[in-house]
Design goal:
mainly alpha
């Protein structure tokens, strides 16, 4: 068996470990907004595991397994979007959020391009998450951690744009981005923990 992109598999597993650890450590009350953040961490962890194995086995599976993992990321974005809709009491917008997830998911599965996941993430974070936590009537401590996480993970755009890396084989821009996202996931966990 031929393994490829071992470094991306490893950095995806770091992301998955952080997300799943946060998932198992959160204990929100029933019917709580914190449940959506818990689901966000679960689906993000699943996305990282599946996409990580997609990287490792890409010689055998092409982008099929990665695309499936990327669809988990779209579901994760939908979960955090649902938290914001519940927080702002704009529940009727759920249909738009679900429709966006379905359309972007179909596009990702058809094109097998990660750029659509990036679009979905940026759209969800900028249109829903940041305004809800900056201007909404939710927990300001939670909002500070969530918005701080998004601001911190914006470094990934700079790293990709300037192609910053420490090696051509290990710690490539994608690896560095995964590690930054792992830190951002932990920040989201801290914010969600303040809802308990």
């Amino acid at each position: 068996m031929i393994f490829t992109e071992v470094n991306l598999f490893a950095s995806d597993m770091v992301m998955a470990s952080v997300a799943l650890l946060g998932y198992f450590k959160l204990n929100p009350q029933r019917e709580s907004i914190g449940n959506y953040y818990k689901l966000f961490l679960l689906y993000t962890g699943c996305a990282a595991v599946v996409a990580g194995f997609g990287h490792l086995l890409s010689y055998h599976t092409g982008n099929n397994l990665k695309a499936l993992g990327w669809c988990f990321a779209i579901v994760a974005n939908t979960s955090i979007g649902l938290a914001c809709l519940q927080l702002t009491q704009k529940e009727p917008l759920r249909i738009i959020l679900f429709a966006k997830a379905v359309v972007v998911g179909i596009i990702v599965l058809y094109t097998q391009q990660f750029r659509w996941v990036t679009f979905d993430t940026i759209f969800t974070m900028i249109i829903l998450v940041i305004p809800t936590h900056l201007f909404g009537n939710g927990n300001k401590q939670t909002g500070g951690w969530i918005v701080g996480s998004i601001a911190f993970t914006m470094l990934t755009g700079m790293i990709s744009f300037f192609d910053i890396s420490f090696s051509d084989e290990w710690l490539t821009p994608k690896d560095i981005n995964h590690l930054i996202i792992a830190i951002g996931l932990w920040m989201i966990y801290i914010g969600a923990k303040k809802l308990e």
